[in-house]
Amino acid sequence: MTNDKVRVAVVGAAGAFGMKHLDALANIPDAQVTVVSGTRSGPTREVAGKYGVPAVVVGLDAVLEREDVDAVILATPTGLHAAQAQAVLAAGKHVQVEIPLADSLADAEVTLAAAEASNRVAMVGHTRRFNPSHQLVHERIAAGEFTVQQMDVQTYFFRRSNTNAKGEPRSWTDHLLWHHAAHTVDLFAYQAGRIVQANAIQGPIHPELGIAMDMSIQLKSESGAICTLSLSFNNEGPFGTFFRYIGDTATYIARYDDLFTGKEEQIDVSHVAVSMNGIELQDREFIAAIREGREPNSSLRQVIDCYRVLGLLEEQLS
């Protein structure tokens, strides 16, 4: 680290989430982006120019060879996450990998073992832990003011072609189970306790994409709370994930960083954290954990149970 700043490389910088991380890091005084990487030099150079990043490289190997990189944020295709996270750790650098950690339980377990064997910060971008909306609910649970009885969650997109969050063609195929369900499976356990029962069914497989376009998941936690998660790539309507917390003292509706009562009255969450942006709060935790030499919220160790549940659900669906 130079001048107490953590020197960060963003890999996959020209993608939708790479740019979200660059936006976030620009607001973090303790972070300095020293290099961006992508698979195509042209778009990556454009991003570097926009954010004032001094160096551009192609691929991960070129990042790991650099001495001006302390930490790497991987905003790359899902299928690369596990192997790339292992490579970053092997190079002696801290890593934050975008959700999901892996697209198989076996790969997730191997990556956890690599993280446990290292002395580096290893974190997964489980953003829902950091959204001010969910943070406020978590604080009230911790204070004994609220207990989850049921979570009702809808994760809806219209994605019948292979496009990303910016509407651009994708080189890889997204997945309802290993990517989008991971957010809710982890959050439910974070808010209601370890998951002890999980069931899943899915709709027809898309003939070109080769994935189920609709899925339904039921979860039960050790506290007795239940969760019903509906996921679809067929939804022509509002995009995103919408959470309804039904509890013993209140009902909350969370839409990303915003929170409402069950009667759609908005709750002020501006006091919850230093930012209203979940991605920024996630990145602040990563940088702070590196500087303080501690385990971050959403470490691989903390989120591995999520992937163990996803592995069980995959067995049910196969």
How would you briefly describe this protein structure?
By secondary structure, the protein is α/β, with parallel strands linked by helices. 34% of the residues lie in helices and 26% in strands. The longest helix is centred in the C-terminal third of the chain and has 18 residues, at 300-317.
Explained architecture:
The protein has helices at 16-25, 41-51, 61-64, 81-90, 105-117, 132-142, 176-192, 278-292, 300-317; strands at residues 6-11, 31-38, 55-58, 71-74, 94-98, 122-125, 148-156, 195-202, 214-221, 226-232, 240-247, 251-255, 258-261, 266-267. The chain is α/β, with parallel strands linked by helices. The chain folds into two domains: 6-126 and 278-299, NAD(P)-binding Rossmann-like Domain (Rossmann fold), CATH 3.40.50; 128-275 and 307-317, Dihydrodipicolinate Reductase, domain 2 (2-Layer Sandwich), CATH 3.30.360. The chain has an eight-stranded mixed sheet with strand order 8-9-10-7-11-12-13-14, with helices on one face. Helix 2 links the parallel strand 2 (31-38) and strand 3. Helix 1 crosses helix 8 (278-292), helix 4 (81-90) packs parallel to helix 5 (105-117) and helix 7 packs across helix 9. The protein is globular and about 50 Å long. The model has no long low-confidence stretch (mean pLDDT 94).
